[in-house]
Amino acid sequence: MIGEKDRPVAPPRWSSAFFGLPEQVIDERLDPLPERLHAFTETYRGRVSELPETELAQALRDYENFLTPLQQATVYAEASLAAGGTGEAERKLLDRCEELWEMAAANTEFFERELGELPEKAAAELLGCPRLGEYRNYLRQVRAAAVHRPSAEVAAVLARLDPVAGWERHARRLLDRITVVDDGETLGLGAALPVLYQADPGRRKRRCAAVSAALAPEVDLRASALTELTRARLARQRLCGQTGWLSEENAGNQLTGGEVTALLEAVDARRELVHRYYTTKSALLGRSLTDADRYAPVGAAPDELSWPEAVELVLGAFGALGPAVSAAAADLIGRGAVDAVPRREKRRGALTFSAPGGHSCVLLTFTGTQRDVLTLAHELGHAVHTALSAHLGVLSFSPPTVLAETVALFAEAVTMRHWLRQAGPAARPGLLGRWLEDQLVTAFRQLSVHEFESAVHQAVAAGEPPDADALGDLWLSRQGALYGPAVSLTPEYRLWWSYLDNLYFAPGTRYAYAFGQLAATSLLAGAEEAGFAARFEELLRAGGGGSPAELLGPLGFRPAEPDSWQRGLATLEAQVREFADAVS
């Protein structure tokens, strides 16, 4: 563990080997992968059903042996680009990785197919084998997905002709070209957007206009990329027999369609909480609100924190979750896994890049605000999750999206509780207002983005792919329903869908944030009970080794029970009331 005296006094920047792997090693590890793929195929194709448990365990390890360096290299390239890498070398590495992923898909498709085709009795016996314990949840997921797996012939055609990877490369280049020019300064979106949280209304308005101006060029190309990606994914899903555009994401999260629908309906039914919040905010600011005011601070803004103060606050909060959690967070900060330096070339906002082997790196822009401190806590939550599951391989270390977001949002909640307990009466309303707004955004704005995405899928499926104008109309409609009458959205805001990475690269993932927020809010109520920290550490060490229901159940949260969602929503409602009372 890195000691306090070794922590940086200014926001740190990644070293060139932030994964703990020299760059040349990352690249060199890709060289033998084609040969390994060939050997794997020759050894196991057509034999999976015959393998005893010891050989199947070896086959799974062999499978991981070529997936691991490929995953590490891919994440490394993506992280370098997001941090503002020069571009050519990173894109070359990423292109190489994508070619290898396509090769892997074509050559190893048989493996999961044959696992899925195992007779029920044989599969049940294998799932009970101790030697396969680490892979048990992975095998269950493969078995569950087998019903929607295309035939070998169709899979071979998809591996050669599926246009998704090509459109994703195109979308990535379009997004990388977005630059914001404000008052003569050229910025990436990651550096430009935090101004929307500042108190100066004139600066917020100017920055909003600058972001809108940056999004206007090539919005038609981004619209085409989004609709073509949607079309290609829907075609692939039809070939796989999937009945809804969320089927694959729900399966990955190990949730039923009914459970997801119950979550979405529960959140939608309480949308008036957002309207009440912004009505109160409008009254407090003494004027009507526009989209430039959505994140404007209310009340006395808390003093900005230095980097050491922010680190001390977050690590102090993590201490309540046990020594392993706080030690892992301190180690990540101390060994250079966090890049928090504000700089214009950063292409993204806050992200954590995780790879098998416990490797994580965190990207954020730290300027000392409350939002920055909570972002640090959130991203460290992701990184600690990866660090504590380092003993797991690539097939088991990564948790479902809903579970990952639950952990990260819970890390935020624990940090905010710790901060509020330290704050004086004058600072508390401002802290509470910002935290409440963040929670409402996570639960309800993400639902609104999900609705936008669902409408896009419906339109494309009906043979009416929306152009940039139609996408702008959809966006304004969904966002207007979210914020309610207290917020007037400007015409330029119709462009703001077009920079959201997840729409292009991770469709269907937005509901995970609503899941995570309500789950985190519910967990916080019992976080100080005896034994909670030990059970939480067990959840982190399990990585993706269990379903959300299995791993959250011991902590008192059960996704299948409607009361779980209502507890989180009731807590948010109480906070809306407290906010209105505190600032009245």
From TrEMBL:
Q: Which InterPro entries match?
A: OligoPept_F_C (IPR042088), Pept_M3A_M3B_dom (IPR001567)
| Stored Gene3D superfamilies | Oligoendopeptidase f, C-terminal domain (1.10.1370.20), Oligopeptidase f, N-terminal domain (1.20.140.70)
Q: How is the cofactor bound?
A: Binds 1 zinc ion.
Where the record annotates domain Peptidase M3A/M3B catalytic, the positions are 330-570
Q: Recall the GO molecular function terms of this protein's record.
A: metal ion binding; metalloendopeptidase activity
Q: Where is the signal peptide?
A: none
SUPFAM superfamilies, from UniProt?
A: Metalloproteases ('zincins'), catalytic domain (SSF55486)
Protein keywords = Hydrolase, Metal-binding, Metalloprotease, Protease, Zinc
**Cofactor or coenzyme needed:** Zn(2+)
Q: Which GO terms describe its biological process?
A: proteolysis
Q: Does the keyword Lyase apply?
A: no
Report the superkingdom from the record: Bacteria
Q: Which family does it belong to?
A: Belongs to the peptidase M3 family.
Question: Can you say what this protein is called?
Answer: Peptidase M3A/M3B catalytic domain-containing protein
Tell me the organism's taxonomic lineage.
Bacteria, Bacillati, Actinomycetota, Actinomycetes, Pseudonocardiales
